From TrEMBL, chain A:
One of its GO terms (cellular component) is plasma membrane. InterPro entries: MetI-like, MetI-like_sf, UgpAE/MalFG_permease. CDD domains: TM_PBP2. Keywords: Cell membrane, Membrane, Transmembrane, Transmembrane helix, Transport. It comes from Paenibacillus taihuensis. Residues 57-275 form the ABC transmembrane type-1 domain. The lineage of its organism: Bacteria, Bacillati, Bacillota, Bacilli, Bacillales. One of its GO terms (biological process) is transmembrane transport. It comes from the Bacteria. Belongs to the binding-protein-dependent transport system permease family. This is Putative aldouronate transport system permease protein.
UniProtKB/TrEMBL annotation, chain B:
This is Putative aldouronate transport system permease protein. It is found in: Cell membrane. The lineage of its organism: Bacteria, Bacillati, Bacillota, Bacilli, Bacillales. GO terms for cellular component: plasma membrane. GO terms for biological process: transmembrane transport.
From TrEMBL, chain C:
Residues 449-517 form the DUF3502 domain. Residues 1-22 form the signal peptide. Residues 34-65 are annotated as: Disordered. Gene3D superfamilies: Periplasmic binding protein-like II. InterPro entries: Bact_solute-bd_prot1, DUF3502, SBP. It comes from Paenibacillus taihuensis. Keywords: Signal. This is Putative aldouronate transport system substrate-binding protein. Residues 34-52 have a biased composition (Low complexity).
Length: 289, 295, 520
């Protein structure tokens, strides 16, 4: 049974993995990737030499941690609420609506955010702040709001999607447990604590482990398009991916680009091995491998 | 579940309605801006109450109906074939891996998980798919590279199998003399409707929304899916935003579609899912009942 | 099971290695042969190559036609591309025994797709260097040197390539691209809708300074409080300047001056003067709001009446084009004189991909595209009757057929990105002396003392990556007047210095001095 899948993964993922060596080479396509000269760690220098190294690492990790924590809490919470709703029509409508944001391309999202926040004609300045008598805010040049805006947009866009996964696991929980609990007179809160959350435990751990493996990555669209590449916001929105993009846009250097990707992978790899090891100590079944 | 405190339900609905509005508002803005006249959009910005309603964008897209209808056709074909194949492959991988007695289970799991962390990059993948499998400018380019089987889905399904299907059920079926493939199709699958439906949905969405394969592997416009069409327009705009273009400025600027058209294509990409999704949801419910009976 | 998997993993590594070696070898071979005599004389093509131009026809009948693969920028519908392919092949088959196969890629995705095709060893012969830089293409071996091939198979191209242009597209004395027919210089100015300019009442030729301009803009703003005198084209300000950026990275010289001392652009008086004025104008409400995040073209902004003008490049035809799109005439204030730098010439050209299987044929075709008006017309304008109709046969003026316009044509016409548009038809509304005027504009432009030089950024790539990130923070915000230069400029400069800007400038100076010494 494993064979067709393994063959695909082998072809799709493992054969091109030879490309990892690009990170350590100065590529000349005419002599081919394999024959291009090795340059050691030279391609990695631009990631560490910069004064921004600290800022971009901090931003990337902090944003991701926030997304993991808040994202999980909200998605699990909403999945549990959905599970409580017994009117079919209402539940279906909620489910459909919260998936909407996931369907909209991030670039279009950036236009919509601009629709809300534009200085002159934005919804927030015109329809909320003005009636309240608050002076209009120049959102795209005021950095202090952006950590919140980024988190709100990210959660808004993703919670419906992860909610589906949790919800599917929830409906898979054996109903007889609840029935027994009700007979024992357990409160709704107790049911959640003793039946629902333990039922979700494995999936929460797995999804978190997977997010940890991606902790050095960031959604380029979210950090570049949504703040409209605005200079005043760069200190607060620059992540490893946007730094690499801005740095290499003019250079067209595949070696340096691969080096950045390799670095992100290695860090994710080490972290996830570590986290998986800890999980395994505590609960063997929930570990990834 | 029998406990029926009214307050709790009111609160639940209250929270859900709030979230629903939170998700709907920007979409409403998208919808409204696609029917706002271009001049009004530029003058007054995006607004919930359009000063001038104007269906030019949709009319424009429909006169060029050939490409929109064709793009829908490509999207539907790719989504259906891709999703079905993906789910079959995923199940075939996930089921054996969910068995604790499988030798080398962790090694295979690692073999799969490793692909989530490391990738050789675009250029080697592109070389392989185009030079050895010759998929450039074929419909398969939108289906096969990268998306037919992903570590994420295998792990999700495996987790579901291990945590939601009691070993006792499988044991019982074995005692009844079922072969492995019989157990999978007769026992496991019916009990796994929720995860099948969920992954089917997630995979379907990723095929529906994918445009990167289109960007890399397709140059013929009759193979553009609806999202490739949209993202091509968006990329054109971004290109002009990022390049100080000398000598080609006005020439290219004039060829970028208007904001309303971009919004209209975005709407056209989202609407079908909104229509289909509620029908799809019945599988979630079915999963509960079947699972409950068997369990 | 475990063993099997481990074995699988090993095979994976082995296979991936062979895959890459294989590619490498392929490319290696073509590279070696290309180097050996500067023309790829591998066994099969040798006979082809040896054939003198005179026996071409004889040759043609006996051999299977070679398909020349072209990659062009701009959209095209599949069936129109097919029609153009067929029409061109009809002409080329008897002449050079070749077919053509055109791929058209939209300009937003062109860079990505061309790069992939060039990196993968995919068969491709000729492509336009749109949004691509020939220096980096040449250093990474994605394009082939063309000089020898041109001498043998592209005499007509060589004849028309001026010495200045030739130097601008050469790297180490090897030609790597053939520039297209377009303006090879630029100058800047300010444009304003003519009706408003007339209302304000001024003589455009008398306006020379930003202060004079300010007076005009202030008056115009008073007359039309709901319109902004300075609009942007997306996020392009078109800051008036005469800088030669010498290629990638910071460090410029004045293209109009004699001095070849490389300086930091943001320390020049002209830059400071501009950003100071922009800040002042932005405060006074003369610049459109949220200018740094503008995602609309100036044509949409002008059409909607949100802005009344803005800075602009004044390349020939540019303002006419804007006027045509907006449907309003414009008054032009010229603020700088035309100048020409390396990038103006090499920015748009046709190069020979290293994935070409028959570089001689490719060059033969390119030569034909430069001399044969029918081929040129097909490449620029598409198929007659399908993509355009004749309006004036004698003067060679064309227009879109009924029901077709620039937005829905199946063949986007981009003359400046096509091998030699100067021998093709003119679109209705274009000036009849378009090509003569262009020629005159190019030849009268001031030539930068560094024209022909191109900076090789390799040794300072780290610094350029870091500097680019600092630029992203400040440059657009300053140029749109969003940030106060008095506070920001010193900070900007400090951060640039910390990122290594001086090292880049010193390296640029070193390379420029060496080049100047060698090209006395």
């Amino acid at each position: 049974m494993l064979i067709p899948g393994c063959i695909y993964i082998f072809i799709n993922n493992y054969i091109p993995m030879g490309g990892l060596m690009i990170a350590f080479k100065k590529i000349n396509y005419r002599i081919g990737i394999l024959h291009s000269p090795w340059v050691g760690l030279k391609n990695f220098e631009f990631l560490f030499k910069t004064k921004e190294a600290w800022t971009i690492t901090r931003n990337t990790i902090l944003y991701n941690l926030t997304f993991i924590v808040i994202g999980t809490v909200i998605a699990v919470g909403v999945a549990m609420l959905l599970n409580q709703i017994r009117q079919n029509g209402a539940r279906k409508s909620y489910q459909t609506i919260i998936l909407l944001p996931h369907l909209i391309s991030i670039v279009v999202v950036s236009y919509l955010v601009f629709g809300f926040l534009s200085t002159e004609s934005g919804f927030v300045n015109n329809s909320i702040l003005e009636p309240l008598g608050i002076a209009p805010i120049s959102w795209y040049s005021t950095a202090k709001f952006w950590p919140y805006i980024i988190v709100i947009v990210a959660i808004w866009k993703s919670f419906g999607y992860s909610c589906i996964i949790y919800y599917a696991t929830l409906v898979g929980i054996d109903k007889s447990y609840y029935e027994a609990a009700v007979i024992d007179g357990a409160s709704r809160w107790k049911q959640m604590k003793h039946i629902t959350l333990p039922g979700l435990k494995s999936i929460i751990i797995i999804l978190t482990l997977m997010s940890i493996s991606k902790i050095f990555y960031s959604d380029f669209g979210l950090f570049y398009q949504v703040p409209m590449n605005s200079g005043a916001l760069i200190d607060i929105t620059n992540t490893i991916d946007t730094y690499v993009y801005r740095g290499l846009a003019k250079l067209n250097n595949i070696g340096m680009a691969s080096a950045a990707g390799f670095f992100q992978s290695i860090v994710g790899f080490v972290l996830v091995i570590l986290a998986n090891y800890i999980v395994k100590k505590i609960d063997e079944d929930s570990a990834l491998f | 579940m029998v406990d029926n405190s009214k307050g709790f339900h009111v609160l639940t609905h209250f929270i859900m309605i709030f979230l629903a509005i939170f998700c709907l508002l920007p979409f409403a803005l998208l919808l409204i801006s696609s029917i706002t006249g271009e001049d009004a959009l530029i003058h007054n910005g995006y607004s919930f109450i359009p000063r001038a309603i104007d269906f030019t964008a949709y009319k424009y897209l429909l006169t060029d109906s050939h490409s929109i209808v064709g793009a829908y056709g490509v999207t539907v074909f790719v989504t259906v074939i891709g999703t079905v194949t993906n789910i079959i492959l995923t199940t075939l991988m996930a089921y054996p891996l969910s068995k604790k007695e499988l030798p080398g289970r962790n090694v295979v799991s690692f073999f799969i998980f490793f692909t989530m962390l490391f990738s050789g990059g675009l250029v080697p993948s592109y070389m392989m798919w185009t030079q050895y499998f010759h998929i450039k400018n074929t419909i398969w380019a939108l289906i096969v590279p990268g998306m037919l089987l992903t570590a994420f889905n295998i792990i999700m399904m495996r987790t579901y199998f291990t945590s939601n299907i009691p070993d006792a059920v499988v044991e019982a079926a074995k005692i009844d003399g079922g072969s492995e493939s019989q157990i999978l199709t007769k026992v496991i699958l019916p009990m796994s409707m929720p995860i099948m439906a969920t992954l089917g949905l997630l995979v379907g969405l990723s095929y529906w929304n994918d445009w990167l394969n289109g960007l890399y592997y397709v140059t013929k416009d009759n193979l553009f899916s609806i999202q490739v069409l949209l993202n091509k327009m968006l990329l054109d705009v971004q290109f002009l935003m990022s390049t100080a273009s000398s000598g080609m400025g006005s020439d290219l600027s004039a060829k970028v579609p208007s904001t309303a058209i971009k919004m209209a294509v975005a709407v056209l990409g989202v609407l079908p899912i909104m229509v289909i999704y509620p029908f799809f949801q019945r599988f979630f419910v079915k999963g509960i009942t079947v699972g409950a009976v068997k369990g | 099971m475990q063993k099997k998997k481990m074995l699988g993993l090993l095979t994976a590594v082995a296979m991936s290695t062979t895959l890459i070696t294989a590619c490498g070898d392929n490319n290696g071979n073509s590279a070696n042969t290309a180097n050996s005599a500067n023309s790829a004389n591998s066994g099969t093509t040798a006979s082809n190559n040896a054939a003198a131009p005179a026996d071409k026809n004889e040759n043609a009948s006996s051999e299977k036609p070679y398909t020349v693969d072209l990659m062009m920028v701009g959209d095209g519908k599949a069936e129109d591309i097919k029609a153009v392919n067929e029409e061109i092949s009809k002409i080329t088959r008897p002449l050079i025994n070749a077919d053509v196969n055109i791929t058209r890629v939209g300009f937003g995705s062109f860079q990505q797709q061309a790069n992939l095709a060039l990196s993968s060893g995919e068969k491709m012969d000729l492509f336009v260097t749109f949004a691509l830089d020939i220096s980096s293409l040449a250093t990474s071996g994605q394009i082939l040197p063309m000089t020898k091939l041109l001498e043998d198979h592209g005499q007509d191209i060589m004849k028309n390539l001026s010495e200045g242009d030739r130097r601008a597209v050469s790297i180490n004395n090897e030609i790597y691209a053939i520039p297209t027919a377009k303006e090879k210089a630029t100058n800047y100015g300010y444009i304003m809708r003519k009706d408003i300019a007339d209302e304000v009442g001024f003589k455009p030729e008398e306006v020379k300074t930003y202060d004079q301009l300010e007076e005009i803009m202030t008056k115009a703003k008073k007359l039309h409080p709901d319109m902004y005198p300075i609009g942007l084209d997306f996020t392009n300000v078109y800051r008036p300047n005469t800088e030669d950026n010498l290629g990638t990275g910071p460090g410029v010289i004045d293209a109009m001056g004699e001095s070849t001392k490389v300086v930091n652009m943001i320390e020049t008086d002209s830059y400071k003067d501009f950003v100071n004025h922009m800040y002042k104008w932005s405060k006074a409400g003369l610049v459109m709001p949220d200018a740094a995040n503008n995602s609309e073209s100036r044509i949409s902004l002008l059409k909607a009446g949100k802005v009344m003008g803005g800075f602009s490049g004044l390349n020939p035809g540019n303002v006419d084009d804007i006027a045509k799109q907006v449907g309003q005439p414009f008054t032009v204030i010229e603020l700088t004189k035309p100048f020409s730098i390396t990038g103006h010439v090499s920015g748009m050209g046709w190069s020979l991909a290293s994935g070409s299987e028959n570089p001689e044929k490719a060059i033969e075709f390119l030569n034909l595209a430069h001399t044969n008006a029918d081929i040129s017309n097909l490449l620029v304008n598409g198929v007659k009757g399908r993509n355009y109709v004749m309006v004036d046969e004698a003067k060679g003026i064309i227009d879109y057929p009924q029901g077709v316009d620039a937005s829905n044509t199946g063949w986007m016409s981009l003359p400046w990105a096509t091998p030699n548009a100067a021998i093709s038809y003119l679109w209705k509304g274009e000036p009849e002396n378009k090509w003569d005027y262009l020629q005159q504009y190019n030849s009268s432009a001031h030539q930068s003392p560094a024209k022909g030089f191109r900076f090789n950024p390799e040794s300072v790539a780290n610094e350029i990556a870091m500097v680019s990130n600092v630029d992203a923070k400040y440059s657009l915000a300053l140029e749109t007047g969003t940030l106060d230069p008095a506070k920001t400029l010193p900070k900007y400069l400090d951060e640039l210095k910390a990122a290594g800007v001086d090292k880049v400038i010193a390296e640029k100076q070193k390379q420029l001095d060496e080049w100047l010494a060698a090209n006395k």
